[in-house]
Design a protein that fits this description.
The protein is mostly helical. The chain has 30 helices and no strands. Helix 15 crosses helix 17 and helix 17 runs parallel beside helix 19. The radius of gyration is 34 Å and the shape is globular. InterPro entries: XnlR_reg_dom, Yeast_MetPath_Reg, Zn2-C6_fun-type_DNA-bd_sf, Zn2Cys6_DnaBD.
């Protein structure tokens, strides 16, 4: 206020504006003010206003004049605070940015001409970063073929084309309907959203991968992975693109195990996967054996996030590479060192199991027949013993160990049984088998499955992996039994005994998942969700088609089974649109099934073990060519009210002729 008062009482002669305000006849009656009210003197004008010699309101970060003109505003030097500090790192950071920019340009140029060693330069830039997964990205814009492969690999496994025909719709299986239009792989919007992880966190994730996912797919040799890829990567050394991809995808797989319950691990999963995706081009350009490893790791990630990876395309590439390297032939091992020979066997049988899983889950042909395979199974030894055969092993009392390949070898055996069931009953060729032949096939395979379950490995130490628990082996057994007895191309209309096997196994499967969940041992995957959903639908389908089966159960028991399945679906997945679709289907079909039971009691009296063939021919079997050719399908008529939910379900593509596929992927 004092300064304003002094300014008001200054003489006109002392005012700088007075020289331009010479009195005239008009100015004597109406004096002109020295400046406009509201603009304080002493405001430092921005650079633009200073050059144009116009008044500036000094607003930050953009003054009013520059804002109106829509231009950038550079504040005056008077607003800049100069900090003279010896610890200022601006110059060092500028030099680092210039170095990384030059390195990125050279790597991009190398990729554009098809140089497969470009990943090394990218990895060295990553080593200078403080976060293991915040490396400069390299886009493969220069190589059109690489772009096509990368884009194809990172497409959703289940997607519906806007131009799909009615025939295409009939070929879509039930898992396709659950995941149709959904994207599970949420990507970070910018680098600012990247979550940093400490070295301790990364070490814990790597150990979690080898404890939880490695027993199912021993793709990597742990000592080699640590020495060749992980340790140099964490030390910031210059590593190849293969190392960059393998480390990041392993960390992403491990983080996905906890992403459903931990928001931080969900972000880490996304960030690691994005970093791995940026190195995918270098991984595909690597040697065949390394490329097969990388593709298998990508498939393992896709089993958790099927809408982030095209599983069918990825496993197809891996299988073609493996066959091209003759990994399926025993003669290929003759000239190899023991470690290399064992890893070749492991990789082939990992590709084999993944191909069986993906092909049968999608209802597509198998990639290789068992008759074409001569390579033996890998040895059931741990990675440490494989690296050093002279090393003394811990006392195991002659039983299997959680660190050896006993679990994997037992899974391979199951895949072979499942493949035989698939070829015998579910192939699209519609094998014309008589009823006695089908019964003999089912009895033979059922005996093999019972023997497989009885010989499942049992571990003294509590296993960290869900795939090494007794409950998981029972789940796998019950899924195989359901696939053996449910409607198939060879047997479109099931018998009462077959439906009873399906219902019993479906109920037991849900109970086993409940036991695993009670122990906090359920690993969320697309597989677990699909298995639970299809077990629920199979149980309800068997109850609807078999009056005798309804007589064995009560309304209260069936209602409890329905609620258990719906609750587990939500608990295992921790929410999500795909699981809500499954819960809605189970509950609606459940309400329709409960209407068939007398209030508070059992269902109608048994009908001599007969099944509702009219219902089975209406719903779920319209895609079977043999039935259409023989005119066995029921004529169209009004749908009973109890079957309206089933009709709506199958009209949207949930066919029992397709639903059996998904349970193979475990």
């Amino acid at each position: 206020m004092a300064e304003e008062s002094l300014a008001d009482v200054r003489s006109p002669a002392s005012s700088p504006a007075h020289a331009d305000n010479i009195p005239t006849p008009s100015s004597t009656t109406r004096p002109r003010p020295t400046h406009r009210r509201g603009l304080k003197r002493g405001v430092a004008a921005c650079e633009r206003c200073r050059r144009r010699k116009q008044k500036c309101d000094g607003q930050l970060p953009v003054c009013g004049q520059c804002s109106a003109a829509g231009t950038s505003c550079v504040p005056s030097e008077r607003f800049l605070v100069r900090v003279a500090s010896a610890d200022c790192e601006c110059e060092r950071l500028r030099r680092q940015v210039e170095s990384l920019t030059a390195q990125l340009e050279s790597v991009t140029a190398a990729v554009a001409v098809g140089d497969g060693t470009a990943g090394s330069g990218l990895a060295s830039a990553r080593g200078e970063s403080s976060a293991i997964h915040r490396s400069p990205s390299v886009r493969m814009d220069g190589a059109a073929s690489s772009n096509v492969s990368l884009d194809r690999l990172l497409r959703p496994t289940f997607s519906r084309s806007d131009t799909a025909t009615a025939g295409d719709e009939a070929l879509m299986n039930s898992p396709s309907r659950l995941w149709d239009g959904l994207s599970t792989g949420r990507r970070p919007e910018s680098l600012d959203s990247v979550t940093c992880s400490s070295l301790e966190d990364n070490n814990h994730l790597v150990e979690g991968f080898f404890a939880r996912r490695w027993p199912q797919f021993p793709v990597l040799h742990k000592p080699t992975f640590l020495q060749k890829h992980y340790l140099p990567f964490t030390r910031g050394e210059s590593v190849s693109g293969v190392s960059s991809f393998q480390v990041n995808i392993v960390l992403s797989i491990a983080a996905s195990e906890r992403s459903r319950t931990d928001e931080r691990h969900r972000r880490l999963q996304q960030d690691f996967f994005q970093a791995a995706s940026r190195s995918l081009g270098a991984a595909l350009a690597a040697d065949d054996l390394d490329c097969v490893q990388c593709l298998l790791l990508l498939c393992i990630y896709g089993s958790n996030e099927p809408q982030s990876v095209d599983l069918w395309y990825a496993v197809g590439m891996a299988l073609r590479l493996a066959i091209g390297m003759n990994l399926h032939r025993a003669e290929n091992l003759a000239s190899k060192e023991p470690l290399e020979a064992e890893m070749c066997k492991r990789l082939f049988w990992c590709v084999y199991t993944m191909d069986r899983s993906v092909s049968m889950s999608l209802g597509l042909p198998l990639g290789i027949q068992d008759a074409d395979i001569s390579v033996p199974l890998p040895l059931s030894i741990s990675d440490d013993v494989l690296a050093d055969p002279t090393r003394e092993t811990p006392l195991s009392f002659g039983g299997p160990d959680v660190d050896d390949l006993s679990t994997f070898l037992h899974i391979v055996q199951l895949r072979r049984i499942n493949a035989d069931i698939y070829r015998s009953l579910h192939s699209a060729g519609d094998a014309d088998l008589a009823g006695a032949d089908i019964d003999a096939i089912r009895a033979r395979h059922h005996a093999r499955l019972n023997q497989w379950l009885a010989s499942a490995p049992r571990y003294l130490a509590p296993p960290a992996s869900m795939h090494q628990t007794p409950e998981w082996f029972q789940i796998a057994h019950h899924q195989a039994v359901m696939n053996l007895y449910r409607p198939s191309h060879a047997s479109p209309v099931s018998t009462a005994d077959a439906l009873r096997h399906c219902a019993d196994s479906a109920i037991s499967l849900v109970s086993c998942y409940g036991a695993l969940y009670a122990k906090n041992s359920v690993t969320y995957t697309y597989v677990a969700l699909t298995s639970l959903f299809m077990a629920g639908v199979t149980m309800l389908y068997a109850l609807r088609a078999s009056p005798a089966l309804r007589q064995d159960l009560t309304r209260a028991v069936v209602d409890s089974n329905i609620r258990s399945c719906a609750t587990l679906l939500r608990d295992v997945s921790h929410g999500g649109e795909e699981v809500e679709r499954g819960v809605r289907v189970i509950r609606r079909l459940g309400r329709a099934t409960l209407l068939l039971f007398a209030e508070g009691g059992a269902g109608e009296p048994p009908d001599d073990g007969r099944v509702d063939t009219e219902f089975m021919s209406w719903f779920g079997l319209r895609g079977h060519r043999r039935l259409r050719d023989h005119g066995s399908l029921a004529s169209a008529q009004d749908t009973p009210s109890a079957d309206v939910p089933w009709n709506d379900l199958f009209e949207h593509g949930f066919e029992m002729g397709n639903i059996y596929y998904g349970d193979f992927l475990i």
